[in-house]
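Key idea: predict the complex, not the pieces.
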Amino acid sequence: MSLQFSRLVFLATAVFFGLFFIWPISETLYGAFIGSDGKFTIDYIAEVFRNPLYVEGLWNSLQMGVWSTLLAALIAIPLAWMSDRFLFPGKFLLGALVLVPMVMPPFVGAIGIKQILGQQGALNALLEDIGLLDPAYPVDWLGEGRIWGVIVLNALHLYPILYLNVLAALANVDPAMEEAAENLGCTGFRKFRRVTLPLIMPGIFAGGTIVFIWSFTELGVPLMFDFTRVTSVQIFYGIKDIGGNPFPFALVVVLLCSTVLIYAASKFFFGRDSHAMMAKATSQGGPRQAGFAMGLVCSGLFGLVTFLAVLPHIGVIMVAFSTDWYQTILPGGWTLSHFESALGHNLTLPSIQNSLKYAGLATILDLFLGVAIAYVVVRTRLAGRQILDAMSMLPLAVPGLVLAFGYLAMTQEGKIFSFLNPTVDPLIILVIAYSVRRLPYVVRSAAAGFQQTSVTLEEAAQNLGCPPLRTLRRITLPLIAANLLAGGLLAFSFAMLEVSDSLILAQKQQDFPITKAIYELYQLLGEGRFVASALGVWAMAFLAVTIIGTSLILGKKLGAIFRA
Amino acid sequence: MIALTIEGLVKKFGDTVALDGISLRIEPGELFFLLGPSGCGKTTLLRNIAGFYIPDAGRILFGDEDVTKLPPHKRNTGMMFQSYALWPHMTVAKNVAFGLEERRIPAAEIRQRVHAALDSVQMGQYAERKIAQLSGGQQQRVALARALVIRPRCVLLDEPLSNLDARLRLEMRSEIRRVCKENGLTAIYVTHDQKEALSISDRMAVLEGGRIAQIGTPEQVYRRPRTRIVADFIGETNFLKGKMQSLDGRKACIETGEGIFEGFLGDPEWKPSKGDEVSLSIRPESWSLQTMPAPVNAVKGRIGESIYLGEVAQYRLQAAHHDLKIFELNPHISARGEGQEFFAVASADDVVVLKP
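Result:
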């Protein structure tokens, strides 16, 4: 491609990033540090740390982030190790199913969890039936420990990201490294701890970072659990008076700074030295057939994790089909009427339409930007292309909540971007918000495609008279179509499930996407939770198909997309 | 058919000078080789001609047209890549048709020309195959057909045979020459394999550190190398150290530790004076072993090692100051026992005098 055109692409993508990534963050910083008199102040930030409610919220957020990440690692690492080492019965199917929870909206799952673990839920009913529990004194499983409900749900939702990263890292470990350890007398778990684990640490770090940032700032799940003493929810409630109140700004900035600090600290401790493999694997490792017992353990663990992870969603599905479910193990009766009333409700159909529209447009925007950025980064030698590359990965490190808040702040009345104000029409700002957050996945998959496609294939086309842009269309894009499809599908399904941007930016009923519609329906008295569940089931079925399809297309390469 | 002229071409990558003032002219219809060790700049030169690099200085002319700044897709060259660069998402026929489609040729003519091109490389029955279903040699033929079907102004071949096994290489190199000559194409062929260059080139340029060390026909380059590096790179040779005694035109008389030698200067512009240090290059097959001494161009030594290869034998002759490699055709090895003394004699015409 000509130099001028590359520069133009570079400039356009850089401007887009400046406007819709750096600007909203600056706008938030402005709100947090500039007082009503227009002077710099740190009073607002200081006040956050003086207010015990906010401090408790931050502490809870931190716990949520740390424990969710550890729990996710505890689930993901053994699974990845088994998948890397063994062939076991049902591996192909289980390997795909184990990824499904990633796209199951956890805040929909919260409805199911409450149905199962609530005071009048299925577990208590079961315990009462077998005489272990006095019906007069039901246990409130989610009462005091409701933060643990949030943590478990987060971990069960996010472990696939770590799983994919660790799997990719394990695939890169030269089997000779472990053979050398065995040869020197180090075997079993000791070998794993002393040789394998340090080698895959960068992979664990890469995935763990995303899981931490995600769960540290999770909004949907604590909201559904009515767990309000957590920073993300406090910000969400603070948005109502965004005009006059500086504290939401200060909270967002504290959240952002903590993320950056924790990221930097953990990078310093865990991600410091990525151990480059000295040579390509010399011996063919590859998984070997597991013995009967090991096979049973592997299949069993994969099955159990998948089951636990989808259990909340099974709960949701049952709620969606049940006539009544109160103080019983299973619903009192079955019905399809909720699906009908879900479709009949004036929130539902428009919300599906809206979500398809927002997510579809965002995906198209992502594909354009992703291909352009990946092209500049991989195929040109333009100065500054590494900065563009790093910038396109940043949305993974910045919490969605922070960005969503920034968009809201930059479109307030009196600001330059007030014409995009979501209370008028959230279409443009939501599409941009959705696409910025998912851009890293598309850039990564497109860049991987460019890297795998030898540049001589493009040179051959130009040599035969094909101009650069047409070469991109006739040769390169068809060759990387699978990567683009996978990246696009992923971007699309995550956009369909987006919580923070949707809850914060969609403010009028006719503009609600699916996630916000579910949230609103759930708030309704009466059959609200049944109808919300029915809508959730539609969304889940659709997304499960999408993610399984994607993982079949990409295989192990899927892991490379989820790296910070 | 066009001539190709390169004038003072310079290409730098950062501080590295890849091409350092290359000038040469390739005649219409010539099969011209660029030869040299890896890193000598031969592929860089080819990529400048194809337009993938823009030179820092100098000009490239196709006929009378200056193409130095023309982008690759407007140069109408047919390039064959080392990796073949066949597109895996297209069939054989689609690959070959691509260049014609870009030229907006009518569909019927495309079909006919693709058919003819594939037939000319014996790939007619594979037209609908996917690239992945072809062997290395078949892919090579398709790549050749794809480069030629557009009737390019010149053909650029970048180590086209390096991915093939030895037997196929022999077969394909005459095939490439046949196709180029039949179509009257000006062709530039990059290789590091001197056998390819010697066997099928009309002329060749040997590159060395971004400069041209020598241009000539295979026989000129082989028999009269101009530098030690050319002599060493093209074929095998023995170097003898000596001092200049006298010079008569190109014919020189040299004193070496093994005796007096007569030979011819490799570089006609070089004027060494009496007493200058020189190197003699004498090919292993130029020697003949005999039991009687000779007044000039003879080395006395003992057979150190002999390897019998049937049609030829290779000997190591240990002389006073040098170890010589000697090839003997139609050998009688039993008469050349280890430790036996012989005189190796070369004719003056086979002795090349070079800068040390």
